[in-house]
Amino acid sequence: MKKLLLPLWMLIALNLYAQDGSLFKEDITDLASRNNLFAFEYYHYLSKKDSRNLFFSPFSIVTTMATLYAGSKGNTAEELAGVFHFSQDVNQQNLDFLQLLNHYKSLNSSVLQLKMLHNFWVQSEYIFQEDYLKSISRHYQAYVKNLDFRLKPEESRKIINQEVKQQSQNMIPELLPQGFITDRSRMIVTNLIFLDALWQNPFDPLYNNKGVFYSGNSEIDGVDYMTSKNVLVNYYENNEYQLLEMPYQGANLGMLLILPKQKDGIQRMSLDAEFYAEKSTISKQQEDSLLFEEINQDSVFFYHKVDIIFPKFKFNSTLNLKEDLIALGLGNSFQEAADFSEITGKNDLYLGEALHQTVVEVNETGTKAIAATAIGSVEKGITKPKVFKADHPFVFIIRDRSNGVILFMGRVMNPLEK
Description:
Distance between the termini: 45 Å
Radius of gyration: 22 Å
């Protein structure tokens, strides 16, 4: 009997086909580290594959794949655990995600929207394990909805796209392309992360100006720059790069910026997993050690006055997640050899297609992003503001400062690229 296929959107779309911190427990900190390790591995892979702007939500991808990991067995479970660094204790991991998702749900206010929406669209009358559906509904706050993929694949695609369009406030007008759903589709898993946040220190439009952005051998003219003077922020620098974090209002979230000191330094900045996993202690005598402690321990930052010159940008990204995840080692899950028998009680599903679509907009007031707090010491004896001028390629990370979870990660090579 052949297996049925499962697509994925994340904003992931995943298609299963038929075969025919003090605030958080240690487990949450561990979950954050696993999420962030995948974030850096995927960034490293994408940066080698594509020289343009990048943007993705590791948390969206990891959360969606965790729901499938909970329904997998054997080699498929081992493969998912290897790529996403999942815990062998699935029950505890499910509880950790529940705590984390409840935390993000509690952050919404008049100045910050952080929505995480998880839907399981399943074939009407197809048999799924009740315990599995209850578990993903409880731990991942997923809604299970019935559609008829078999007889109405195109109508089903339009229904899903319309809901995504509404949930994303029209930022994702069409997630699933024609042909994504077929009469063999049995489950579509969709995960949406939407962030609309205001800067704690907004930029004054009166200081905006046009300027040049230096990218590779190109000089990109007409870039809109925002300027903010004497802003007290978390700051760190060494011989190779500057780190600066701009906090958002209403929650302990912030955008961490990594700016190489050399204009072509982005090409030499190795943000791979091995680099990230280096747990060296940062000190003035160890300026060659890099981004593990900087990103995960605020103790390396100093509260410092900084003049910030930063480009406005807005762009979208659509990633072929199937191709990327196979390259990262997830080959078995996309073949009929896959074992997702905990989902249906039969060994009858495998992953078909996977998409990840994101939009990010950064301006004077804050950030809109969709797909995705300890303060350090005060450095003594320095009163002159540092200058952080992002007029060449840089990396940006939107993270939860209370536990370190990377929600979104990207790279700007050209602020004018849409």
